Amino acid sequence: QVQLVESGGGLVQPGGSLRLSCAASSGPLNEHTIAWFRQAPGKKREGVSCVSVIDDSTHYSDPVKGRFTISRDKADSTVFLQMNSLKTEDTAVYYCAADRDPNNRCAQFLGGVQSMGYWGQGTQVSVGP
Which residues are CB-contacts of 127 (< 8 A; sequence separation ≥ 6)? Predict the structure, then answer.
């Protein structure tokens, strides 16, 4: 059982930055593909970014490409989402998710075609004046 804990959310002005962290209280994340999702009020959950356990390849949805960066700190098994140039439309609850993923399925995970096995409780990101 993997228990995920997100942190780093908050209120930031448009154009600002935040860094989200995803850690596992139950053990290392080095054997899992990790992805970030978000859900804004009244909207469906959408995939944001993913880092594959197979080859460390990174994947991004079009709305965040060029502004967000996902990275994995293998020393302490934490995954980060660096979010720059934040926009009001980035306001949402952000969730990290993990899956053992032997088949490099980041694209399927982000596209909602397949679901990931473990989820955190989410952290609120609010972008506004």
Answer: 11, 12, 13, 14, 16, 86, 87, 88, 89, 90, 91
Nearest to 59 by CA among 23, 111, 102, 120: 111
**What is the rounded distance in angstroms from the CA atom of residue 94 to the CA atom of residue 125?**
7
Alpha-carbon torsion angle 52, 91, 4, 48, nearest 10: -10
Task: Return d(Cα 35, Cα 48) in angstroms, integer.
Answer: 7
DSSP character at residue 106:
H
Q: Where are the beta strands (DSSP E) in 43-107?
A: 46-51, 58-60, 68-73, 78-83, 92-99
8-59, pLDDT tens digit by residue?
Answer: 999 999 999 999 999 988 777 888 999 999 999 999 999 999 999 999 999 9
Q: Tell me how long the chain is.
A: 129
